[in-house]
Specification:
The protein is α/β, with parallel strands linked by helices. It has a single domain, classed as Rossmann fold (3-Layer(aba) Sandwich). The chain is built from 8 helices and 8 strands, in the order H-H-E-E-E-H-E-H-H-E-H-E-E-H-E-H. It has an 8-stranded mixed sheet with strand order 1-2-4-3-5-6-7-8, sandwiched between helices. Helix 2 (51-65) packs across helix 5 and helix 3 (123-139) packs parallel to helix 8.
Amino acid sequence: MKIKTTIFVAILLVATAATAQQATRPTAQPCSLLTGPCPGHPIAYGSGLNAEKQIRDSQKLARKEAAPGNPQWRAKGDQHRTYNFPDAGMDIPYRLYIPTTWDGHSQLPLIVMLHGAGADENMYVNMNGKQLLHLAERHGYVLVSPLGYNRFGAYGTPLRLPAVFGQPESVFAKQRAAVTPQERRTLQLSEKDVINVLEIVLNEYPIDTKSVFLMGHSMGSGGTWYLGAKYSQLWRAIAPMSGPFVDESNYPWYRIKQMPIMMSEGTLALPSVKGSYAMRDWMIAHHFNLEYLQVDADHGGMVPLVLPAVFDFFDRYRHQ
């Protein structure tokens, strides 16, 4: 009996200790899109593409496109280019600018510019006396403007007006639910095109990968928010202009929490300005690394007014 009693007491002590250990073990917290990390969490309203796989696929395509013997290889100045996009079954154009003062060897910073709805790879580059090209030359940046597959591809996100930050979740849910299979394919091709073009330039020119920036206006602003978070490992900073197309409940905020962001808006840019105000205040309250700039102009007129400040902003964060 003594032996049995001793065994019983030992088992009881072990069980009690295990219970106490479980009681003191911290309870697993649910994944937070604000603080993260949320491994494998997709952007619920986006194209559904896997970001890491897309980067690898685009790098593979860039190597196939490489043509060191071509006279255009590592050319300088303003260039209208195309590449073969197998998934789309066609050649896709993009606009590229290399500073004429580049010595042909030094690493260069890079800006990707996403155009607004209805535009193409040339419109924003050509507007206001080719202001973007003059700024790229003056500040020493490579500038690339992808088409995004077509004029309305939206770079992977289906969000449009009135789905700006601060609207009820039902507004965003309605737009997500309305995406048809054909539209989803367009979203995917648009997103793929941006990453393809980026990787083609990275493969050809000696780009400083610690100084790669993303900006866009209107639809391109929505694309900047979307691709800025989904491919956050690629960007040093982002600058969305007049387009707060962000679904608060489904956006992976933690991926851009520490990233420098310049958000800009025109005071006459109705109705996006109300969404921008709400998003600005929310991000400041949650301690994002945010700079906010507004100018007295409408939705389109704000662009040339803020571009010089955007380049100055990027200058503050480019790798030295």
